[in-house]
Each structure stands twice: as structure tokens, then as C-alpha cells.
Amino acid sequence: MTPTQIAGDVLILAGALAFLVGAIGLLRLPDLYSRLNGVTISGAFGPALILIGLLVQQPSVGNALKVGLALVIQLATSAVGGSAMARAGYLTGAPQAEETRFDDLVVELDEQAGKEHPGYSRPDT
Question: Where does the UniProt annotation place the signal sequence (predicted)?
Fold first, then answer.
């Protein structure tokens, strides 16, 4: 095996491991929002690592263009899809785990309505 084949295999294996970590997170994390975080990240970087590994093994300009386009589409749709699913979960009232209960959106909406949140301090921006 050549060094490029080994590097490609390592990247493909890392992509497969990213999927495995996402699957474990889907089973072990406590609520919808935590699960979405794990699955969205592994769903974005798993295919990216696999595609880059394939490109390392079969380098060509045509393959680079195809992989580049696939990466742009994958990363964009993964982020937008994760946000859309989280918003849908929030709007339908998906339950939150106690350890992840704090709701920044409620604080923001309450502050706009003139309500106070004494225990909340806004981070410096």
C-alpha cells in the first residue's frame, strides 16, 4: 500500500467513526436537542471525511470538483436541516432534559416584553 492509500483509508475510517459516535449519541443523549447536536455534527463531518479520503485515494481534477460540490451541499444542508429540526421540536414543545433546561429564547422574548430575569446575566458581546 502506498502512503496516499493509507491516508485515504485513515480518513475513511475516521468518517465511519464519526457516524458511530453520532449513533451512540443518538442512543445515549437525554433529549431531542442534545441528540440533534450530536447527529448533525457527525452527519456533516462523517461524509466529509469519507469524501476527502476517497479523493486522496483517487486524485483527479474531476474528482476534486465532484467532492468539493458534494462537501458544500452536505455541509450546508446538514446545518440548515439541524436548525429546522430543532426549531420544529421547540415549536411543538419537545421536552427538555433537566440538565439542558435553560431557554435563551424565552429570556429574549420576555425581555422584549419588558419582563425581568434576575438570575440571568447577558454575556458580553
Answer: none
In a domain, 119, yes or no: no
Q: Residue 106 sits in a domain of what CATH number? A: 1.10.287
Q: How far apart are CA 49 and CA 15, in angstroms?
A: 5
Is 118 part of a structural domain of the chain? no
The model's pLDDT over 2-55, given as tens digits with 9 standing for 90+, comes to 999 999 999 999 999 999 999 999 999 999 989 998 899 999 999 999 999 999
What's residue 67's pLDDT? 96
How many Å apart are CA 119 and CA 101, to the nearest integer? 14
One-letter-per-residue 3-state SS of 51-101: HHHHHHHCCCHHHHHHHHHHHHHHHHHHHHHHHHHHHHHHHCCCCCCHHHC
Structurally, the chain folds into a number of domains equal to: 1
φ/ψ (deg, to 5) at 59: -75, 130
Query: How many other β-carbons are positioned within 10 Å of the β-carbon of residue 19?
Result: 17
Q: Are 38 and 21 in contact (CB under 8 A)?
A: yes
